[in-house]
């Protein structure tokens, strides 16, 4: 399929998310709509909407943005602990019909604050089993009638969702994204997801994971279209390589100075396998492959902000093309200030990416040897 290029809408009421210095409007429909319309105007297909207890409800925000835009596709982050799959399947199918096929879904298994909303499923193995049932059942409810399913976590009898999702572009329901680096998470993706979403790891690590997921897909007797792959990462793009590295290092210096002072950069620093993998990358070098910057993770950068691609538009386009040659076709990028970087990255980077023909998914790409900390920048 053609590559998908998405941005990120933070979906939080607190200003300062990941260093964004915008002071007004956070959490308002005006602020989020402005970001969505700016994304449309600068070539993005849509944006991932963040989720977490204590933040605005992601599905409600997505519905409002779909109504105020024309082509913008909300990638709606959803936790199975928030929804019963039948309720979610009906809501998402309705929004997909109303938006003429613009709904994308990102299923999240990670813990946020489950006790606050009455979710008692906290054991990781059970959470992944629940997620697998959720994905399996939602897909069936979107495509079948009179569905009966009696699982360990969910049960429905003679359930039919109406309306159906809007058929467009060769798909018969919204694309289901899922992330996770543990063995249990990867088995969920291999069996039931449409897209496995990775964070910013080096090429060799993602090549191994893609190979493993393809093998797992055969082992679990996958019954859907072949699993696709996506990358969620921060991109620091400037007119020149030197400008980009100055900007990135200045920002990391501020993160280091703010450490321990409630910096809003801090992500999930818990024991999630994927987060640990990112944090451990700094031991291999400060810059990996061509321009993957690992230092932000040492000073509070979490999740997609743990590692950054840094450089000119040509530098970052080359790095993303290397990921695409591994088989990655979905890209969720971001940087702050969000609105300013929607325009900059959209105008400078996306034309370069779209001008390059998709590479063969079985290609293998390696970058130069890792640089040690303190090594000279390009």
Q: What helical percentage do the residues reach?
A: 25-40%
Radius of gyration from CA coordinates: 20 Å
Give the ordered list of helices and strands. Answer: EHEHEHEHEEEHEHEHHEEEHEHH
Uncertain ranges: 261-269, 359-378
Q: Describe the biggest sheet?
A: 8 strands, parallel, barrel
Strand order of the largest sheet: 1-2-3-4-7-8-9-13
Instruction: Assign an overall shape.
Output: globular
Per DSSP E runs of 2 or more residues, the count of β-strands stands at 13
Distance between the termini: 34 Å
| Mean pLDDT over the full residue set | 89
- Beta-strand share of residues: 15-25%
- The number of helical runs is 11
Description:
By secondary structure, the chain is α/β, with parallel strands linked by helices. Helices cover 38% and strands 17% of the residues. It has eleven helices and 13 strands. The protein has helices spanning 29-41, 58-68, 85-98, 124-143, 183-192, 203-219, 241-258, 273-280, 313-326, 338-348, 350-355; strands at residues 4-9, 46-49, 73-78, 104-107, 147-150, 155-159, 175-179, 195-198, 228-238, 287-288, 292-293, 308-312, 328-334. Strand 5 (147-150) and strand 6 form a beta hairpin.
List the helices and strands and how they pair.
Blueprint: E1 4-9, H1 29-41, E2 46-49, H2 58-68, E3 73-78, H3 85-98, E4 104-107, H4 124-143, E5 147-150, E6 155-159, E7 175-179, H5 183-192, E8 195-198, H6 203-219, E9 228-238, H7 241-258, H8 273-280, E10 287-288, E11 292-293, E12 308-312, H9 313-326, E13 328-334, H10 338-348, H11 350-355
Parallel strand pairs: 1-2, 1-13, 2-3, 3-4, 4-7, 7-8, 8-9, 9-12, 9-13
Antiparallel strand pairs: 5-6, 10-11, 11-12
């Amino acid at each position: 399929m053609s590559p998908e290029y998405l941005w990120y809408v933070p979906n939080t009421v607190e200003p300062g998310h990941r260093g964004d210095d915008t002071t007004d409007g956070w959490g308002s429909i005006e602020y989020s709509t402005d970001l969505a319309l700016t994304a449309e105007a600068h070539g993005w297909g849509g944006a991932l909407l963040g989720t977490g207890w204590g933040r605005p409800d992601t599905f409600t925000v997505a519905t409002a943005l779909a109504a105020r835009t024309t082509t913008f596709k909300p990638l709606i982050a959803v936790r199975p602990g928030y929804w019963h799959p039948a309720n979610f399947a009906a809501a998402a199918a309705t929004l997909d019909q109303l938006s003429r096929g613009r709904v994308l879904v990102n299923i999240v298994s990670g813990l946020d604050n489950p006790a606050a909303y009455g979710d008692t499923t906290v054991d990781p193995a059970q959470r992944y089993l629940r997620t697998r049932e959720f994905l399996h059942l939602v897909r069936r409810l979107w495509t079948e009638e009179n569905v009966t399913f009696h699982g360990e976590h969910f049960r429905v009898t003679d359930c039919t969702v109406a309306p159906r999702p809007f058929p467009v572009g060769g798909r018969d329901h919204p694309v289901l994204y899922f992330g996770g680096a543990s063995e249990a998470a990867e088995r969920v993706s291999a069996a039931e997801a449409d897209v496995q979403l990775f964070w910013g790891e080096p090429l060799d690590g993602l090549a191994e994971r893609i190979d493993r997921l393809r093998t797992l897909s055969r082992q679990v007797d996958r019954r859907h279209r072949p699993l696709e792959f996506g990358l969620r990462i921060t991109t620091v793009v400037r007119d020149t390589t030197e400008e980009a590295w100055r900007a990135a290092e200045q920002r990391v210096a501020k993160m280091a100075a703010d450490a321990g002072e409630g910096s809003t950069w801090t992500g999930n620093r818990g024991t999630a396998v994927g987060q640990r993998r990112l944090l451990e990358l700094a031991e291999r070098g400060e810059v990996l492959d061509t321009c993957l910057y690992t230092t932000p993770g040492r000073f509070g950068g979490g999740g997609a902000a743990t590692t950054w691609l840094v450089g000119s538009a040509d530098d970052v386009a080359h790095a993303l093309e290397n990921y695409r040659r591994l088989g990655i076709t979905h890209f969720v990028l971001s940087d702050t200030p969000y609105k300013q970087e929607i325009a900059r990255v959209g105008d400078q980077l996306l034309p370069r990416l779209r001008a390059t023909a998709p590479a063969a998914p079985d290609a293998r790409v390696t970058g130069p040897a890792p640089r040690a900390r303190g090594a000279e920048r390009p």
